[in-house]
Each structure stands twice: as C-alpha cells, then as structure tokens.
Known about the structure:
The protein is built from no helices and 11 strands. By secondary structure, it is mainly beta.
Amino acid sequence: QVQLVESGGGLVQAGESLRLSCAASGSIVSIALMGWYRQAPGKQRELVASITSGGSTNYAGSVKGRFTISRDSAKNTVNLQMNSLKPEDTAVYYCNVRQSYYVYWGRGTQVTVSS
C-alpha cells in the first residue's frame, strides 16, 4: 500500500506565497503520476497541477503562471509552489499519486488566503 502525507498548508494574505509538499511511502514500485487537487466548500474537487514520471506537467488554467509543480523521484515527493495567491485559491489541497492500477489520496491540507 501507499501512504501520502501532505504538509505546508496554512493561512496567508493575498499576494503571498506558500509551498506544499507531499511525501509518498509504502509499497512504491514506480509512480506514473503525482499531482495536486483542491476542493473548496460547495465545489467539486478539481485538478490543480500534475507531473508525470517523465517530467511532463499540466496545470489548471486558473493557476497557470502562478503555481509550479515539481517532483523528487529519489524521495518520492511532489511539491507545489504557489505564488501570487488569491482568495479564490482557498481550499483543501489533496495530494494524488497514481501507480499501476491504483490511485492514492492524501488526507488533505488546508490553504486559506485572506484578502
């Protein structure tokens, strides 16, 4: 099994930055994709950014140019650097890992951006 632990969430003011990290552990053989999703109250969970084992990235249009996803394959971690944060970025952010036939989720970390 794979376990995911997120960290780095918190409360910041609009325009400030925050860096989220997710560490995967357990039965890790070969991770195909790591990414971040977020869910705000009353809204569906949405993809924020993802990165494949080959380094290809994908971003939601609302965060492109402000957020940067990166990975450290040796440490099985994925990071999300969030700059120029906006109040609409407020949500619970979830780490997502895909390996073989399975998809794993972290418990989530709260990000709150005040105006």
